[in-house]
Amino acid sequence: MQALLKRISLTLVIVLCSAMVLHAQDNTFTGAVDSNWDLAANWSTGWPPSQHIYQKITIAADCVLPASNTVHYAFHQGSTLQIKVGVSFTNLGTGGWEMYGEIVNEGTYQQTSFNSQGVFAQTGTFVGTLFNDGEITP
User: Fold this and answer.
1) In this structure, is residue 13 part of a structural domain?
2) Dihedral angle computed from the Cα positions of residues 135, 101, 56 and 62, in that order, rounded to the nearest 10 degrees
3) Which residue from 13, 44, 48, 54 lies 20 to 30 Å from 33 (Cα-Cα)?
4) Distance from C-alpha of 130 to C-alpha of 134, rounded to nearest angstrom
5) Into how many domains does the chain fold?
């Protein structure tokens, strides 16, 4: 009987833990090695962002997401992409880019196109096509 209760308890704990939403750690592109988004050593956490982004991503050094990157990124509600003053972020990736969170552009942001359903606060330069279902603040 005790073994059965332990199994049930363990199963319940596993189910409850897997149902919890875990928020990822904020991540900063430092450019410690070069400007390549895909290089883990360029990120403060030691790895580039995953395709589903729930946290704040800060671009603190010139950064290029290369054309060879085919990941479809989704910045979910509550996430932020911040491009710091004097920094250039160029997205050449071919996988897609969805923004449901916030973009804070204080530098230069270059991308062919993306779909935004969040807040886009821009003080730098934006080059490309912007589809926005939220608020654009100059």
Assistant:
1) no
2) -60
3) 54
4) 11
5) 1
